[in-house]
Design goal:
By secondary structure, the chain is an all-alpha fold. It has a domain of about 50 residues. It is about 40% helix and about 0% strand. The longest helix is centred in the last third of the chain and has 11 residues. It is globular and about 30 Å long.
Length: about 80
């Protein structure tokens, strides 16, 4: 029997409503050196952006665009918070 890796719960309900759920993951996890501009633009109009960013920071997401911020931007934000 395969292991169910789907994480659900009220704290992750934002993921179902987020605009990124309607696009492919490659959009938010571009190849190194590729532009994150389009992903950030989509995040900018997403109603779930704040919840997404909070999730990424709380779970130390190190790759991709989360809540409109790149890996480097999230790292910089973490440094300024401490």
């Amino acid at each position: 029997m395969p292991i169910n890796t789907t994480v659900t719960g009220p704290e992750l309900a934002w993921q179902e409503k987020a605009l990124c759920a309607q696009t492919g993951p490659e959009f938010f996890f571009p190849d190194p050196g590729s532009s994150t501009r389009d992903a950030k633009r989509l995040c900018g109009v997403c109603e779930e952006r704040v919840a997404c960013l909070q999730y990424a920071l709380a779970n130390d997401e190190r790759f991709g665009v989360w809540g409109g911020l790149s890996e480097k931007e999230r790292l910089s934000l973490r440094r300024t918070e401490h």
